[in-house]
Every structure is written in C-alpha cells, then in structure tokens.
C-alpha cells in the first residue's frame, strides 16, 4: 500500500514538477519499481501459480493460462501488475519527454527505456495469462464453465476489467497482443452488461470511464 501511495503522489504532482526535480522524480520511479519487484519476490508460496497448456486457444493467451491456488491470490497479483505497469509507463514518459535532463544527469535513457518496456510487457503478458483462470473458474458459478467461451459473470468481469484496462497500452504492446486485450475487454464488458468503460487514445490506451 505504501509503494502504491508513493506512485500516486508522483502522478498527482506530475503537472507541477519543476525542471530541477525531474531527475529526482525519475529516480523515485525507478526505486518504486525495484520495491515492487522485491515485494513480489518475497510473497509466500500461497501466491504461486502454474502455467497450463490448452488444446483449444479460445480465451487463453496464447493457448495457455495460469492456475492459481485461489482467486484472492490471482486478483492481488493482478493488482500488483497494474501498479507495475503504471510505474513503468510513468518511467517511459520521463524517458521520452525529459531525455536531455536525464542524460545530463548521467542516466542511460536507452537502457531504462528498454527495461521499462520489457517489464511492462511481462506484466501485461501475465495479466493475459490470468484471463482464462477467472472466466473458467468463476467462484460464483455452481459449476466451472462448461467451455471457455461461456458468458462471464459479474465476478469474472469485475476481477478482470481493471487489469485488462491497465494492460491496454496501444503504444507499448505488439499489435496482436494489444488487439487480444481489447477483444477480452469487449467480451467481458458485453457479457456482464458493463457499458461505462472506455479507452483513451491520448494515453495510448489505458483506463478511462466514459
């Protein structure tokens, strides 16, 4: 919670950051990402998951999905992935718009850009691998879905919609992955009757409410 609050504080102050504070803010973002990685590496085995292959791809990405011990673990890990996606999105924004100041401070912005893209795509990939778990093993169903294309319930939709929206970074993902994410957003919102979700082209995807 403390790590997320630090990110929120940076984002809230983003429009008012003085040029002299750019490098310090950038370093703070890198520290937040390190702390997030350390948090994830210290989790108990209750958060472990296993990747399983499927014969039919359907909603699974791409033809596989992750099996978690329970829905709480899966949901918490997806929240962590959302925060890490946004942390690296903010890092990329600084790399793109403040490159001169960062280079002057001795930062290798190309290395940081590459690393942020790798981390972001890994978090998005893991969210994608969680989709089938929530839709196939919906805790509110009397029985697991007979097939993976069955309509999702409100639980499945609410568990997935926020992570999928964070994952929908059009300018950061390979086109096929981005379109797969968009297709899952359309699917879960349609089946659950959610109509207030939108994507912002200005932010390259991401979360908005229309």
Overview of the molecule:
The chain has one domain. 59% of the residues lie in helices and 7% in strands. Helix 6 (154-167) runs antiparallel to helix 7 (175-192). The model is unreliable at 206-210 (pLDDT under 50). It contains seven helices and four strands. The strands form two sheets. A two-stranded antiparallel sheet has the order 1-2.
Write the layout of secondary structure elements.
Elements: H1 2-12, H2 22-41, E1 49-53, E2 64-68, H3 71-97, H4 99-104, H5 109-136, H6 154-167, H7 175-192, E3 197-198, E4 208-209
Antiparallel strand pairs: 1-2, 3-4
User: How many β strands by DSSP?
Assistant: 4
Uncertain spans: 206-210
Strand order, largest beta sheet: 1-2
Q: Give the helix level as a range of percent.
A: 55-70%
In angstroms, what is the radius of gyration?
A: 18 Å
Sequence of secondary-structure elements: HHEEHHHHHEE
| Percent of sequence in beta strands | 5-15%
Q: What is the 3D form?
A: elongated
Provide the structure class.
mainly alpha
**Main beta-sheet annotation:** 2 strands, antiparallel
